[in-house]
Automatic annotation (TrEMBL):
<dbReference type="InterPro" id="IPR000868">
    <property type="entry name" value="Isochorismatase-like_dom"/>
</dbReference>
<dbReference type="GO" id="GO:0016787">
    <property type="term" value="F:hydrolase activity"/>
</dbReference>
<dbReference type="InterPro" id="IPR050272">
    <property type="entry name" value="Isochorismatase-like_hydrls"/>
</dbReference>
<protein>
    <submittedName>
        <fullName>Nicotinamidase-related amidase</fullName>
    </submittedName>
</protein>
<feature type="domain" description="Isochorismatase-like">
    <location>
        <begin position="6"/>
        <end position="176"/>
    </location>
</feature>
<dbReference type="Pfam" id="PF00857">
    <property type="entry name" value="Isochorismatase"/>
</dbReference>
<keyword id="KW-0378">Hydrolase</keyword>
<dbReference type="InterPro" id="IPR036380">
    <property type="entry name" value="Isochorismatase-like_sf"/>
</dbReference>
Length: 185
């Protein structure tokens, strides 16, 4: 018997498309997420959507802004779980942990944006809470940024470091095809 893995889709909202033009990695991430989402729905396994709601009035993620809406191909169905967060951690003050525990879900698979931000923070918390945590690295993405020492880092470098921070300690980092292989046939 397969124990279901909850697919947790983090911050795949229209506002992420409205960020200032910066170089990003994994341009196929949304398509990879859509493939995973379709497979999860077909298997009848739990799907959780996380929506970022900003506390800053001028943010594209502020309540009432179009940026809050989900990327249309990844929008939740009425019966799928939806949690809102206003920090970089999907578990903090959201009820997500309780929702998973009540359903006896012990494993989670995280995808979405940004690799070093909400994905990494949520995966760390999931691992620390004792969930078997998987991160599909090709279904996550981020943007180029300058590190603390002032060195510009490419989106690929930022992403790779985030995945390195997680793998083996907080989560198992894998690709989406490997994750798809975990679904019941």
């Amino acid at each position: 018997m397969h124990h279901p893995i909850a697919l947790i889709i983090i911050d795949m909202q229209r506002g992420i498309q409205q960020l200032p033009e910066r170089s990003r990695n994994n341009p196929q991430a949304a398509e990879r997420i859509a493939v995973l989402l379709a497979a999860w729905r077909s298997a009848g396994w739990p799907v959780v959507h996380i929506r970022h709601i900003s506390r800053e009035a001028g943010s594209v993620f502020a309540p009432g802004q179009p940026g809050v809406e989900f990327h249309p191909p990844l929008a939740p169905l009425p019966h799928e779980a939806l949690f809102e967060k206003n920090t970089t951690d999907a578990f903090l003050h959201s009820g997500l942990e309780r929702w998973l525990r009540v359903r006896g879900i012990e494993s989670v698979a995280l995808v979405g944006v940004a690799s070093e931000n909400s994905v990494e923070n949520s995966a760390r918390t999931a691992g620390n809470l004792g969930f078997r945590t998987l991160v599909a690295e090709d279904a996550c993405f981020t943007y180029a940024k300058t590190d603390f020492a002032g060195t510009p880092r490419s989106a690929d470098e930022v992403h790779a470091m985030a995945m390195a921070n997680l793998h083996g300690e907080y989560a198992r980092v894998l690709d989406s095809d490997t994750l798809l292989g975990m679904l019941p046939q």
